[in-house]
Amino acid sequence: MAFNALVPTLEVENMDETITFYQSLLDFECISRDNDKWAFVQKDDVGIMLSSRFHEDKHPKPVFTGGLYIYVDDIDVIWQILKDKVDICYPIEIFEYGMREFAIYDCNGYRIQFGQELEPN
């Protein structure tokens, strides 16, 4: 039995604003969309589904306590592109577990982390 892919689904407040965020700032492409109900955005091998809100009465704001971690091949270029255009969660730094990374928030408050493995010494 194989697991072939993991594609998170994020509930969003405003579909147009969210798609624009991912397209204009993160260079994703909107592959498919069903009005304001659902969309699929993708960049390279990273895909994210976006959906309208479920159970908004119980959860007035989108809630996700984790983060989306995206492995990249040139962390410094991505940092330079994004650092002055987005809400930063934590700036670029090196972590003891061998990653150079930073994190931002998207327009819905979801944390997106970008990381690059350090070259072994």
From TrEMBL:
Coiled coil: none annotated. It comes from the Bacteria. PROSITE patterns: VOC. Residues 2-117 form the VOC domain. It holds the Pfam family Glyoxalase. This is Bleomycin resistance family protein.
